[in-house]
Amino acid sequence: MKKDTLILSFESSCDETSVAVIKNGKEILSNIIATQIKSHQRFGGVVPEVASRHHVEEITICIQMAMDEAEVDYDDLDAVAVTYGPGLVGSLLIGIMAAKTVAFAHDLPLIKSNHLAGHIYSAKFVTDLEYPFMALLVSGGHTELVYVKAPGEFETLGDTRDDAVGEAYDKIGRVLGINYPAGKEVDRLAGIGQDTFNFPRAMVQEDNLDFSFSGLKSAFINTVHHADQVHEELSKEDLAASFQGAVLDILANKTFRAIKTHPVKQLVVAGGVAANQGLRSRLASEIAKRNDDIELVFPPLRLCGDNAAMIGAIAQIQYDKKDFADLTVNADPSLDF
Amino acid sequence: MKILAFDTSNKPLTVAVVEDGKCLARMDSSEEKTHSVSLLPDIQESLEKSGLNVSDIDRIAVAAGPGSYTGVRIAVTVAKTLAFTLAKPLVGISSLRLLAANGTDGKLIVAVEDARNDNAFAGAYIDKSGEVVNVIEDQHIAMDQLFEKLGNYPEEQVEFVNVSEHLAELIQDAMPKASVVLTKDSLPDSVKLAQIAENTEPVKDINAFVPTYLRLTQAEHDWIKKGHKEDGNISYVEEI
User: Fold this and answer.
1) pTM
2) What range does the domain containing B33 cover?
3) DSSP 8-state code for residue A118
4) With an 8 Å Cβ cutoff, are A52 and B206 in contact?
5) Per-residue pLDDT tens for A194-227?
6) Which chain A residues in 279-318 lie under 8 Å from chain B, judged by CB atoms?
7) pLDDT for residue A205
8) What is the C-alpha to C-alpha distance for residues A248 and A260, in angstroms, rounded to an integer?
9) Which of A71, A81, A109 is nearest to A11 (CA)?
10) Interface test with A, best of B57, B81, B222 (most A CBs within 10 A)
């Protein structure tokens, strides 16, 4: 029988310090996440220097908790994995330096993993993946359609031309007086309101798989500012529903366009915006309507945000391919596939 | 006692393995290396040259700042994680105290790091028969204020170390009789760091060990200026 593989994984690319112990790339023995949201809410968004400082405060506490909760010792581990990009350079460096140190101290192989790949492989904790599959990656930093041909082999089919979808939520949230991160509250309001404003659906007519959200964001902000000037009160719920309606139309349009040209059996939706209830039900109903034989895979809510468990999942594939890094690993803030 | 000591607070990178005050191996670089890339390979090589395994080390010593925020964080994160994961004692030493070790005995040694816009991180130390005493606390300070604080001391007794070319000009104007040791002639020395650390109490709580920044971030500074107060009861970071 094949021996189990235990990977200690690190993720610190933005404002969450996370350390996990993952068994065979699909079983979570521990997944400690320390979030800095309350700190950055003071400033209305993530401040990179503040984030870096918090990571140093939390890092060894998270390692300790992850090892304790998993009830493992360093001798039990097979490898150490870490996110090396994309993300905030100062934040990435804390996880990288800590992971390199643990790997060096205990003579363990080191694996450097792509944060985006990690998000996609969070699906591994839900179901067995069948290749090829499609991934819609939606978060505060990314909006991408990724075709996953084989384990760890990615092809980006579409990307955002301007804002990431989660970033657009935060920006229009600010106009509605909602603090960062605004996605959850906008989603809630959208569930109550009606799509009455007919905001533009950018690029849905275009024959490509790229996204654009800045026009939608501007239309939204202009609508609210104009109403303010003429002292007209607009319904927050309807504004949210109209914004989200446009976002979902864009995401659904491009996703199913991609599936048409690249047939797959599974659609994985990952990243912070994958927690959006509107998106979840919209994609499910589109699949039902189309009568497509596609399994829709959403990671559990806890694994939609940044976490180290997902890094353990992608790292297992790299471990099996013996794709190891050395102690010179550096942060790559604009890493892509 | 075998000590692994390193500093990446500013441009130089220095790593040493020291046993009972004697250097077994050291690696230094003064040009701009990428500390995040070089630090662990340099630690590894220093240990290999010493014929030691990392687990043979009795104590870890690190320069804890002030300095470049990112630079200090790199060394502190490695030191803290190493001490934590191997359960070894950890000693943090002021990066200015370490630079002051490059000064002349008997002088009032003012270690400075250029913090731009005529500001510096600065601290003053006197070596009294082998015992170094801190006489002006490490701080982020405007150079003209620093000169004012030094007004009580005979100018010719004052020695500035780790001086950038720009700070040298300011010192020349304000305190022409003070001596000046330029940065290139006062590189941080990890062997001295190990020696200082040997006689310093290790930190009690490794998890709580963080860099000495001596400055709030701009965002926090602005936030407090708007009238907000730190609320000791609020934990800004939460486990979820």
Assistant:
1) 0.95
2) 2-95+188-220
3) H
4) no
5) 999 999 998 788 889 999 999 999 999 999 999 9
6) 302
7) 81
8) 18
9) A81
10) B81
